[in-house]
Amino acid sequence: MAIKAIKTGLLIAPFILVINHDFYSISRVKDASFFPILNKYLETSTSFIEDDYVLVKILGDNYKPKSIKDKLVRVITPDYRRVYRKVECIEGEWCPSPGGFVFVQSGHAWVSGSDTPSHAVPLATIEGTVEAIVWPLDRVQIIQNPIIDLTNPK
């Protein structure tokens, strides 16, 4: 019986790895990159069990930048951390900022987060869109459009 289970596991494992790498990924949210939507209980979170885990839909090589506008995305920072931001504007658009309006250059997106001011990031650093919170179980929910006003969560 155990040998049959091992054989079945070895047959299924490559498919799970491909799905996890190329289509969907479950990712841990370790910091306040989009508080209070992610890591709502950040001040009491001390371990990996208390952190949020999200389902991220990996973007293909030929995705349309307009498809990520107003969505919560996972971004790779220059020091290779994964952070979560909301895409406010995409290339070729004027975006409001504290100092007036900013024109978003080609190949970039204007993102906002709760722990950093709004800024431009290259589209190549955007890995995927956050589809749902999958852990902890009391916070499981589908993310359709993040809360726009981070200071007044609903």
Describe this protein with a few key phrases.
single chain, 154 residues, mainly beta, Umud Fragment, subunit A, eight-stranded antiparallel sheet, two-stranded antiparallel ribbon, 1 helix, globular, disordered C terminus
Describe the structure.
InterPro entries: IMP2 (IPR037730). One of its GO terms (biological process) is protein processing involved in protein targeting to mitochondrion. GO terms for molecular function: endopeptidase activity; serine-type peptidase activity. This is Mitochondrial inner membrane protease subunit 2. The chain is mainly beta and 154 residues long. The protein has one domain: Umud Fragment, subunit A. The chain contains one helix and ten strands, in the order αββββββββββ. The strands form two sheets. Strands 1, 2, 3, 4, 7, 8, 9 and 10 form an eight-stranded antiparallel beta sheet that branches. Strand 7 and strand 8 (119-122) form a beta hairpin. The longest helix has 21 residues, at 2-22. The radius of gyration is 18 Å and the shape is globular. 19% of the residues are buried. The model is unreliable at 149-154 (pLDDT under 50).
